[in-house]
Amino acid sequence: MISIIIPAHNERHNLSKLLPILNSEASNILFEVLVMLSCHSADGSENLEVAPNVKFVKCQGKGRSVQMNTGASMAAGNVLVFLHADVIPPVSFLNDIEKTLNARFEAGFFSYRFDKENFWLDINASFTSKDGIFTGGGDQCLFIKKQTFENLGKFNESQALMEDFEFFKRMKEKKTPYKIINNDLIVSARKYESNSYLRVNLSNFLLVVLFKMGISSETLKSIHNKLLKMPYQHNT
Predict the structure, then answer these.
(1) If you count Cβ atoms within 10 Å of the first and of the last residue's Cβ in the chain, which end, N or C, has fewer?
(2) CA-to-CA distance for 185 and 204, rounded, in angstroms?
């Protein structure tokens, strides 16, 4: 069984599109969806009409790591999938995951493309099909065997930002076998629309470099919030 864990903060619009798509996949694989709402989420996401295998949970602690760890602790499946609310999976999503784990990998990610046609965004997306400096980011949708996730110590709840990169760093240190599936997720370009291509790329590069230098996550979060605007995360 696969447990799809979606951390969300005021993502009603995206969830209303994503959840039906997940349940429309033609697959005989048993799965559940756990939508882990932030403690400050206030857009009524939990009132969406959903399939019986979808559950909404309001988290008490702060931070995406807390949301994802809480979801993992509640998961009935032996495979965990961490999917962002603004990401649309490919048609063969669940089958791709099952096939990869049956091939003796313990974890994996997907390549992705953006939901807007843009030459520069296409260049960005092209790097997600292979290992590189940005591998392990949340938009690539980490899937992992539950036992492996627990053995690695789960997400670091004190990591205020880039918890996905910090977890991937431990994956590599422990030589966890993983695969990048070249079957594109569709990722929202809203961060680029709210800022600019150059600003987002320079900010991302700076944050990754500072993270690798060991700069504290609180400092990284402060820099991120000063450099990038994300109005879509605020309830209106």
Answers:
(1) C
(2) 20
